[in-house]
Amino acid sequence: MRAEMAVDVSYELAVETDLDFETAERLTRDLLQGEGFGVLTEIDVQQTLGAKLGVEFRPYKILGACNPHLAHRALEVEPGIGLPLPCNVVIEETGPGRASVRFMEPKAALSWSATPRLSRSRTMLQSGCIGLPRGFSDQTEAGAEERDSLAPGR
Fold it and tell me: Which helix (H) or strand (E) is 84 found in, with range?
């Protein structure tokens, strides 16, 4: 399996994978948990658009993730920081057996706040969030190595 950093957009960190949608979602949830994030909200865009508009849409979920320790620290410093929370993570099917995962870029999410006391929380959030795509790549590479080692003839 392959996972690579993709789109260079100032507000997101994106990973393109050779994983099916369900596997990408499961791995994303595991990586979020490993970085101390919980999923507070979940929007199944495919289901919502089907129910509300009667349209077909590709598998697409928005997970609202939050690290309670970082959120608490930031909210103590600046109550209005709750506006861009929780941090959204998007999982989207991009083709058969392919999915992309997009994480909100922390600097972009918190850039509108000039509160100096938030700089430590911003740095910690950025460290955790940037680790997510990297962890995604590590996990998919490890899975590919394990799968390859179990293949017949090896």
Answer: none
